[in-house]
Amino acid sequence: MPDFTWRPANQAAAADVEAVFATGGARKCRCQALKVPGWIWRDTTQGQRDVSLLEQTACGTPGPTSGLIGYVDGEAAGWVAVEPRENYPRLWSRKQGWMRMDPELEGVWSVTCFVVRKGWRRSGLTYELAAATVEYGEQVGARVLEGYPIEPPPGRSVIWDEASVGLVQVFLEAGYEVVASPTLRRRVVRRRLGSPA
After folding, report:
1. pTM for this one?
2. What is the mean pLDDT of residues 98-113?
3. Which of 181, 65, 62, 195 is nearest to 141 (CA)?
4. Contact (CB, 8 A) for 104 and 154
């Protein structure tokens, strides 16, 4: 990977966020799938999702923010969503128990989505972004980082909607461990940070 850096989205320019989200499926979703209380395509408009992303990233403010922007040679190239688990209402409203494991566990931050800008895909950028979540988690005092990646069957590829949550190998390379395998393809991974209270 050429020179990779990252920063919390509130320390990035709104134009950088837009540049990353302007291509591919993320252009429509705007990282709102687990944020809206209802069903994203039925209960929100594109305009509402656009506004919500900008409000959540809080560019140019002290924060809090909803993710990290990754830069390759100084150009905005990727995004990873990471913030306290309680900020994702749909994790708690869905029927699948794996989306709300250990509800009493404190200090859990969820890593829910990766977006790589066209032109940097298949370059290993998601690995860099996953590693950045660990560094960021340490900075903000997270106790546990938690992700919900897909593990494709051997020899099978994944579509964008699946890959957007991350692949298991990406998280493993960043030191996460698989803690549950609720379905044939879905995994729950965690990385513990810091020392216990």
Report:
1. 0.92
2. 89
3. 195
4. no
